[in-house]
Design brief:
Structural class: alpha/beta
Shape: globular
Order of helices and strands: HEEEEHEEHEHEHEH
Number of domains: 1
Number of helices: 6
CATH architecture: 3-Layer(aba) Sandwich
Length: 273
């Protein structure tokens, strides 16, 4: 079975489970940010494992299901958890749910994660809107001939993170008095955290935040022409910055504390898209 056939089969199965709902916005929730899915009203819940060809999420705190319903007056489909390359999945398996969301009609992707802050002017607990990324995973989901059957595989990544959505989020954050920055995100394969030497190199390249997700999703979304908004919660300072040595526990402690503001910002963004 080709990649295109697998996407079509998964999209058909997902549509059946959505019971007539037609989501226009897709949201991917990163580590510790899953509680936003609890704000979705009239929701239907579909575990990833119940959709053909979808892989299961094994990461800590990632529930691993689609949640579809109403959020801020819009029909959304939320991934409560994501698929990571460090779980042993291929780039196309990581990108697969993005292509499936597009196949059921989603035109705008909101992708979020917890990230380490490389920029020393950022504080733990701040949010950073992605204005560009450095894909240092060494992987790309559009490699091969199969993705060319979905959409042309040579495409621009200029303004991969939609400028209008970024500006809208900045306006909302100012209105809601939530501290946000804009910056360049660097994505790695993981699962080990970075070394201090790597962080020094990434800082020299112009990276402001670093984590282990997002890039392959965004490439897949832009491949099929979706608008993208990306935002990180700075859950820790990157390794070596101010003596930091990141841990999973720190990530989730900070996320729990910042979830209310995260939900407020994303809900208002969805309302105004």
């Amino acid at each position: 079975m080709t990649l295109k056939e697998s996407i079509c089969e998964a999209a058909e199965a997902l549509n059946l489970r959505l019971e007539g709902r037609k989501p226009e916005i897709g949201i991917i929730l990163g580590s510790g940010l899953g509680p936003l899915a609890e704000q979705v009203e009239d929701a239907v819940y579909i575990p990833f494992g119940e959709i053909p060809h979808m892989k299961r999420s094994t990461a800590t705190s990632h529930v691993g299901r689609f949640v579809c319903g109403n959020l801020a007056g819009k029909c959304v489909v939320v991934m409560q958890g994501r698929i990571h390359g460090y779980e042993g999945y291929t780039p196309q398996e990581v990108a697969f749910p993005v292509w499936v969301m597009h196949a059921i009609g989603v035109q705008t992707l909101v992708t979020t994660n917890a990230a380490g802050a490389i920029n020393e002017s950022f504080n733990v607990g701040d949010f950073c809107i992605m204005n560009d990324h450095i894909n240092f995973t060494g992987r790309n989901p559009v490699v091969g001939t199969d993705p060319d059957e979905i959409a042309f595989r040579f495409f621009s990544m200029k303004d991969a993170y939609d400028p209008d959505l970024r500006e809208l989020a900045l306006q909302i954050a100012k209105r809601e008095e939530i501290t946000v920055h804009e910056g360049v995100y660097l994505g790695l394969l993981g699962p080990s955290f970075e070394t201090p030497a790597e962080i020094r190199a990434f800082r020299a390249w112009g990276a402001d935040t670093v984590a282990m997700s997002v890039c392959e999703e965004v490439i897949a979304a832009r491949h099929v022409g979706m608008r993208v908004f990306g935002m990180s919660l700075c859950s820790n300072m990157a390794c070596g910055i101010e003596g930091a040595s990141p841990s999973d526990e720190e990530v989730f402690e900070v996320a729990m504390r910042r979830v209310p503001d995260f939900c407020r910002l994303i809900i208002e963004l969805v309302r105004e898209i």
